[in-house]
Write a structure and sequence with these properties.
The complex is a heterodimer. Chain A is of the alpha+beta class. Chain A folds into 2 domains: 16-120, Alpha-Beta Plaits (2-Layer Sandwich), CATH 3.30.70; 124-238, Alpha-Beta Plaits (2-Layer Sandwich). Chain A contains 6 helices and 10 strands. In chain A, helix 4 (136-148) crosses helix 5. In chain B, strand 3, helix 5 and strand 4 form a beta-alpha-beta unit. Chain B has a domain at 8-231. Chain B has a 5-stranded parallel sheet with strand order 2-1-3-4-5. Chain B has a 4-stranded parallel sheet with strand order 14-15-16-17, covered by helices on one side. A 3-stranded parallel sheet of chain B has the order 9-12-13, with helices on one face. Chain B is α/β, with parallel strands linked by helices. Chain B contains 22 helices and 18 strands. The chains are: A alpha+beta, B alpha/beta.
Chain lengths: 263, 645
């Protein structure tokens, strides 16, 4: 058979790698990761971002996504990395892509990549879960029992059927946020309107333990029942420090950028 | 004034419990939110299928934009909800909603439903019921929206006559403006529902079924359909937009977050078709041919790509390679977007060498995966009957060229159950498929050649020369297809490389009932819906048993499923849609039907003299084709935001 090769020169090489932090807010939290990926790639085209492409008959833009929050869960801290064929100013790029994305999918920060892979810096995630129709006492008691256990197995439905995972081991921190509490510099966490706020820090694990799994575990240990669907948001992802705080994964890129600009 | 309040706060908690919730939240790029109070006339536009199928629909997108451009109107969209959400909405008392502002559909002035296929009828009933709108038009009052049907199926709206207040035939761009004007005035005048409908009917272009009485002969056939009041036309005519360049819609196509069936920027390059394939309702009811100019196409593609970020451009029409300047369009688009990784596609093409050149141009910088051809009929004789003139030699020659130039797979579309068809006609499909494989092996020197044969059941449609034909029964179709499968596999070496895809005959029979049905069929649709019928276009939801069971309600009229489907009609029979004017002359359709039975072909009036189908003379016009001798035109400067430049 006649073998065809693409006409013209090979695609230009990657000259700059940038890392993006984005948020999934409001009703667009119902978008799946695939939905986001399609919207993002279209936004890159509308914003005329000089993407680097793979070679071949169906060239793909160079994008790598990190583990995404589940469909229906909002997030302030999702991450991805892209390769560019021409150097750009990170802040201009942030604005251009953000303008091209629908409201609710927002680009929060952009840095030029430096050093180790971003995935290696994502050690844990910080979640906040809003629960309605339950008392703070009941949730607090369930959290206490959960933390006291060594292992809490929950069943997760996957494509290949049911699977048991330990929801306890990766949980670094879990507590009910009281009135006036400040968590990681965020004061917006006080319970209001009869909601109970559950704050969670969960270490990266395979398979990833998600807010759903922890809530299922709370139900397992004390029979905590939730009359209304929970509202979860991922507040941060990044390196984990000794006190159980989640840091900024871009800190190293920023430091490298500052050092470079001093030279 | 109607007050509308968003249903979203009540819907939101339910969305965590349904599949693909993104389809219900709206917020698509290029969607519009107009102020409720500022509009005099408010339209809810529905495509009665799942969001993933309905969102890309061009008809709905065009009307959505055209209506929203009017200062005195607003339009929002609504789609069929899947059974998982339907159950939750019923449990929580949430009505059918629009995806734009999540307003209740019941609060709008008009619910416009676009039917590409009759299999959406049950989904319309779900939406009406969820919205709290009485299923029967006769039970509605001034507080309910007018329910208006459009789309190709509206050329015979009789089976849904009980459920719709009105139906509109043909192109919607202009007529939605006219309807909006009439409704705005009727609201200002404080008209009753009936007098509003009477004003619409009086325009001559809006069909109000309640204003016509149908009488029947003792043998079940229709005796007559006559207006039952003054001021209502005896026949209602279709709408035709003559200059497509004046209507460059959609200008800013909707881009969904959710995955949909067509992820591309579509431009309709012409409307209408004069090929005259006798089975093709779309080709008959959209005449005359009206081309968009090459310049107009160039502007729409440019603007659409900027507005969407789509990576693929589809040039749509019923036979896209027939555009008088298609060669220049293909070459200039391929040149223009060479560096931007935009691919081009040309659905609906004929079998000839010219089209391989076109396809090569379109795939200049992409993969050459599959080419699709539609001979439709298995034998040369049958192709004369259906007026789809493709000789087997031409097909094999074309296919050899395609394989030789790097195309890897050829798909062939056929129909089964065509008028006068015999087993032998269908078995020739196997020969053709074998010859395609042989030709491909010869052209490439490789044994690794694929050919897929795809077969659909033929359904006779209103306003076509086959509107009188007997539909083949399901048993005949199924038997013929199993003989064909055996014939394809009779030669194992060749048969191995031929894939065969087909559907059972039963769903086609129900499509036939709904296509050529009359008002009595409404009771069948309602019963099927009451028994749980939903999403009948989806094989996993369709139930033949439910439809054939419900068809027994027809017994009280002395007719049945077979009477509507496998019965051949006489020339003097009053057809349920005879009072609806598609522009085609009934005598011409009958003569063409007789020509089909005599195996005579009819030429294409694009290239040969007019054969008087009636459409142009009825409209006082002529076919509108180029060439204009123009070009795609210059590109405007690229988007303002160009980081790093």
């Amino acid at each position: 058979m006649a073998r065809r090769v693409p006409e013209g020169p090979p695609p230009p090489p990657t000259v700059q790698r940038v890392r993006l932090r984005y948020a999934k807010r409001g009703r667009l939290r119902f978008s799946s990761h695939r939905d986001f990926a399609r919207a993002f790639e279209r936004a890159l085209r509308r914003a005329a971002v000089p993407m680097a492409y793979s070679a071949g008959f169906s060239p793909h833009p160079k994008i790598s996504y990190l583990g995404a929050a589940p469909t229906g869960v909002a997030s302030e801290a999702e991450y991805l990395e892209i390769g560019l064929a021409r150097r750009v100013d990170p802040e201009e790029l942030r604005r251009a892509i953000d303008d091209a994305l629908p409201e609710g999918l927002d680009i929060v920060a952009v840095v030029e990549a430096a050093g180790a892979s971003l995935a290696e810096r994502i050690e844990a995630a910080h979640w906040r879960i809003q629960l309605a129709g339950v008392s703070a006492e009941a949730v607090g008691a369930a959290v206490e029992a959960f933390l006291a256990a060594e292992q809490v197995l929950v069943t997760r439905l996957t494509k290949d059927g049911k699977r048991e995972i330990d929801a306890r081991a990766p949980v670094v921190r879990a507590h009910v946020v009281g009135p006036g509490d400040e968590v990681d510099g965020c004061a917006c966490a006080t319970a209001e309107g009869g909601h109970v706020i559950l704050d969670l820090v969960v270490r990266q694990a395979t398979p990833a333990v998600r807010p759903d799994d922890v809530l299922a575990a709370l139900a397992t240990v004390t029979g905590l029942a939730l009359p209304a669907p929970p509202l979860a948001v991922r507040l941060a992802q990044g390196p984990l420090d000794g006190s159980g705080r989640v840091g900024d994964p871009f800190a190293a890129d920023h430091a490298a950028g500052a050092a470079a600009s001093l030279q | 004034m109607t007050i509308a309040e968003s249903l979203f706060p009540r819907l939101e908690p339910l969305l965590l419990r349904v599949s693909k919730p993104i389809q219900y939240v709206g917020g698509e790029l290029n969607s519009r939110h107009k102020d409720w109070d500022s509009a005099k006339v408010r339209w809810a536009l529905m495509y009665p299928d799942a969001y993933e199928v309905g969102l890309p629909n061009q008809g709905v997108q065009i009307l959505y934009e055209v209506l929203n451009e009017r200062p005195d109107a607003l339009a929002e969209r609504t789609y069929a909800v899947w059974p998982d959400l339907e159950a939750l909405m019923r449990e929580h008392g949430i009505g059918q909603f629009t995806v734009d502002s999540h307003f209740p559909v019941a609060a709008f002035d008009v619910l416009g439903i676009s039917f590409s296929t009759e299999l959406g009828y049950t989904n319309m009933l779900t939406a009406l019921d969820l919205a709290g709108i009485p299923l029967h038009a006769a039970d509605r009052d001034e507080s309910h929206p007018l329910v208006v049907a459009g789309g190709h199926a509206a050329f015979n709206p009789e089976p849904i006559a009980d459920f719709v207040d009105a139906a509109v035939l043909g192109d919607g761009e202009q007529v939605v403006g006219m309807i909006t004007d009439v409704l705005a005035q009727a609201k200002a005048d404080g008209c009753s529902r009936e007098s509003t409908l009477l004003r619409l009917a009086a325009t001559g272009g809006v069909y109000v079924p309640a204003f016509y009485d149908v009488s029947y002969l003792p043998d079940g056939r229709i005796a007559a359909v006559v207006p039952n009041r003054a001021g209502v036309p005896e026949r209602v005519t279709k709408h035709t937009v003559m200059d497509l360049d004046e209507w460059p819609y959609p200008k800013t196509p909707l881009v969904p977050l959710a995955e949909s069936v067509h992820e591309r920027m579509s431009v309709e390059i012409f409307r209408g078709c004069t090929r005259g394939c006798r089975f093709c309702q779309a080709g008959m009811i959209t005449r005359p041919v009206r081309e968009r100019s090459i310049k107009g196409i160039g502007e729409m593609v440019d603007q659409g790509l900027r507005a969407t970020g789509f990576q693929e451009v589809g040039l749509l029409s019923l036979s896209s390679a027939d555009h008088s300047e298609i060669g220049a369009i293909a070459k200039q688009l391929a040149d223009r977007y060479e560096d931007e990784k935009v691919s081009l596609s040309l659905p609906s093409t004929r079998v000839d060498a010219f089209n391989i050149d076109l396809a090569n141009e379109f795939s200049r910088n992409g993969r050459r995966s599959g080419l699709t051809f539609a001979p439709e009929g298995g034998s040369e004789r049958l192709r004369r009957v259906i007026n789809k003139m493709v000789s087997k030699d031409d097909l094999i020659k074309t296919v050899s060229t395609a394989y030789g130039q790097g195309w890897r797979q050829v798909k062939l579309y056929f129909m089964c159950g065509l008028p006068t068809e015999t087993d032998e006609d269908v078995l020739e499909i196997a020969e053709m498929a074998h010859d395609v494989i042989r030709a491909g092996r010869e052209a490439t020197g490789s044994r690794d050649i694929r050919c897929t044969v795809s077969i659909g059941g033929f359904v006779p449609k209103p306003h076509t020369p086959f509107q009188w034909a007997a539909q083949a029964d399901a048993q005949t179709i199924d038997t013929r297809l199993s003989k064909l499968r055996a014939a394809i596999n009779a030669d194992r070496s060749l048969g191995r490389n031929v894939g065969m895809r087909y559907h059972d005959g039963e769903p086609s029979l129900i499509e036939g009932l709904l296509s050529r049905g009359d008002r009595r069929v409404g009771a069948v649709i309602e019963q099927v819906w009451r028994e749980g019928g939903r999403f009948d276009g989806w094989s996993e939801h369709f139930s033949f048993a439910r439809w054939s069971g419900a068809s027994t309600v027809l017994e009280r009229y002395g007719v049945d499923l077979d009477w509507y489907t496998t019965r051949e009609r006489d020339g003097d029979e009053v057809l349920p849609w005879d009072h609806l004017d598609s522009g085609l002359d009934k005598q011409w359709l009958w003569d063409d039907w007789q020509d089909a039975l005599g195996e005579f072909e009819q030429d294409d009036c694009r290239w040969t003299p007019c054969f008087d189908c009636g459409v142009c003379s009825n409209l006082g016009t002529d076919i509108q084709v180029g060439p204009t001798g123009g070009s795609l035109g210059r590109l405007l400067p690229l988007a303002a935001t160009k980081p790093g430049s």
